[in-house]
Amino acid sequence: MSRAPNTRKFGEKRDAIVNAASILINDAGVQATTLADVAQAIGLNATSVTYYFPRKEQLVVAVYDETLTLMERMAAEALEQDDPAARLRHFIAAHVTLRKRIRAGERGLTTALSEIRTLDRAAYDALMAHYLRVVDLVRRFFGDWADREERALFSARAHILLEAMMWWPVWSLRYSVLDFSRIEDRLFDILAYGLPTTRGLVDPQQLVGNWRTSDDEQAGQNEAFLRAATVTINERGYRGASVSRIAESLNVTKGSFYHHHEAKDDLVLACFQQSYDRLSAVQIAGRDIETDYWTRLSSVLAELIDLQFFDGTPLLRTTALQALDAEHKEDVVTRSNRLARRFAGMLIDGVADGSVRAIDPLVAGQVLMSTVNSAYDARHWAARFDKSEDAVKTYLSVMAQGMITSSA
């Protein structure tokens, strides 16, 4: 039901409330943001805010919908460009420009979408429908697909591109805004044309290690908690992954949970630690095989993508970062950056042995981290393939071949 006539004054105040809520959610997360906090931020009383948004979740939905509307507009503007290369470049430039504006002091322009999964089903479904409209626009950057296989490839490109743009605000903090134009060029080069010198080369080797979930192995209770928490947080977000829900999935009591973990944040950090330990183990296993460095790197990526698609315990999504306090968030991002730098080191060695193009390895390392992260949300996409290896090969081809397959 409409709360007031659609007047300019009403719209301006509503926009101010949404903007303030966006800033608070970005700074502290959904759970820590209250209607009273939003009211105080713009000099209103809580009653004034509830006139526009009677419930907090309505305001949260409005905040996320504003960001999705912005993403949709950016995608639509990019789609108006003449060819796939121009569309890709325009889309990347729009995201870099947005980050420049935020660095210049503008706030509330966009909100991290990491906690959409915490909303009730109706709100989540509506926002996901909006997000899928964005995905469809980005998928069309690459032209009209000829068949089911090409549509799947274009979907993978869209998914990887969107994830790269959503991860960019996190690692952009490591760069001066004076370097943004160069980063924009390097991002385009990597995403457009891929990594290997022999474009499209995909010949991963099988890696050996113990990072997989074993169906036969009886995990200890602490290990079982980590597995259940990782899956639950990935599916429902931090706020939706209550201690009760995690314990219930294992048919144990909340008391059993607190026997192993003092608080839920401790469990989230342990999940990140386990995920990064597994990712690191795969990196090391691939780094140490005897072959050229692109084959080593593509072997690592293939294993990690397969793990994200099909393993019973995927890696924890980086969306859980948003709910952590600043100190813990910094620790997790630091570990992520170390893994990205290991990817960068492999790329540098690949440039040296001639198997990798002369790309920016630090930028490419971050793109690889976001690509691995994105694969979890592509599980339903991967399940449509008759053979699991075809799903992995198609997804990996985006890094092996790039997103621009012609001279256009």
UniProtKB/TrEMBL annotation:
The keyword Transcription regulation applies. It holds the Pfam family TetR_N. Residues 11-71, 219-279 form the HTH tetR-type domain. InterPro entries: Homeodomain-like_sf, HTH-type_TetR-like_transc_reg, HTH_TetR, KstR2_TetR_C, Tet_transcr_reg_TetR-rel_C_sf. Keywords: DNA-binding, Transcription, Transcription regulation. It comes from the Bacteria. Coiled coil: none annotated. This is TetR family transcriptional regulator. It comes from Qipengyuania pacifica. The lineage of its organism: Bacteria, Pseudomonadati, Pseudomonadota, Alphaproteobacteria, Sphingomonadales.
